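Support reply, case 0932

Customer input (verbatim):
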Amino acid sequence: MAGGGLTLVERPLDPDEYLALLARTDLMLLPYDAASYGSRSSGILAEALALGAPAVVPDGCWMAEAAGRARAVLIGPGQSAG
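Our regenerated output:
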């Protein structure tokens, strides 16, 4: 997961940092695990879609239904994004 244009966030962001990150987002990768989290809402998914940024979400979960195939790339189990 290295690359000049990749930002991996592994800590909470303050509101200004979060807004700055969203402003320069090209793609949202949301590796949602339904077994761990169940059915929850996703502010991040809503924000990605509102920004027009593509979202990559697991197929078969509520996020895939909410985003729809027109606005998200759906990745099935064992499937690569390439």
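We compared this against your earlier run and they match. Two observations from our side: Strands lie at 28-29, 55-58, 72-75. The mean pLDDT is 75. Please reopen the case if you see a mismatch on your end.
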